[in-house]
Amino acid sequence: RGLLNFGDLRSIAHSLRGEVRRLGDDLLILAEFDVVELERVLGEVSALNSKITNLQRRLVSEQRALERSLDELRATQSMLVHSEKMNALGKLAAGVAHEINNPLAFVRSNVHTLGASFARLLAAYEALDGAALRGGAGDVAELAGALREDIDLEFLREDTGDLVKGTLGGLARVQKIVEDLRTFARLDHAEEELSDLRESLESTLAIAGPTLKSIGVQVTLEWGELPRLRCKPGELSQVFLNLLINAAQAVECRGKGNGRVVIRARDEGYCVALEFEDNGAGMTPDVLGRIFDPFFTTKPVGQGTGLGLTISHKIVVDQHGGTLSARSTPGVGSTFTITLPKELDG
Prior knowledge:
By secondary structure, this protein is α+β, with helices and mostly antiparallel strands. Among the domains are: 2-66, no CATH class; 192-346, 2-Layer Sandwich (Heat Shock Protein 90), CATH 3.30.565. It has 7 helices and 10 strands. A hairpin with a 7-residue loop joins strand 1 and strand 2 (14-23). Helix 4 packs parallel to helix 5. It comes from Sorangium cellulosum (Polyangium cellulosum). It catalyses: ATP + protein L-histidine = ADP + protein N-phospho-L-histidine. GO terms for molecular function: phosphorelay sensor kinase activity.
């Protein structure tokens, strides 16, 4: 009676507790598995299963935390984009306000004149009505003659038509500015859509126009025939505005009236390319290599966030699968090139 070891040499051997008996010419081996060893193995398996379960729970927890972090990151990026857009609009606010104020002042003046003319006509009507009620035909005729001398009806007719036409024109101008602002902000179109890039660019130019004009920047459009593009026009409008503002600031060194910005657009078959070229101060290779880095700016403290080009790069590259690159020569100027694929993935 004792312990016997059985097993394949290539695997783990097991100890069996048993005894050997002789039955005539035969040997009878009676054995049982070692319960102690079985319990040990089962304990190890149970411990491993417990560790695996804990790891799985931790993995699920970390995955959920990661998803929350990604959601927060997306929200933060969205807020940064919106903040930079509002920052860009803020820089143009004075010019836009001036553009709105001019037609509004014109409308106010016209309405004041129309009000005065209407008051005179109303007074004349009330006088004639009073004379008619008194029943004196002579009084009515005499009053009508006096009114003709006092009120030039032909002039009033023509002047009123001009005033109404001018007022409607002024209101249409204000409406166009508001539409351009809406096109830029895209308050009602945040998703991708089939869009005309020229329309987005012209709306952006209309917003930036007063500021560019005050600096004396000459903007030239060299626009080729382009297809409508599936894109996010509101986001691209922000890219256009950022590049225009940067170009306008770059050419200030040339003096008023000497700054030049040329915008070119062309169809390159598989993509659409847009170039923003200025004759500003240009950039050194060191600055050029860092312009898309977050918070990098060459402007004085308080005059730039350092996020405009970073956000523009993310909009073009991450949201549209395109490219945004720059080349520059100090003292000559800079050119920013956008390429956008004709098919937007995702």
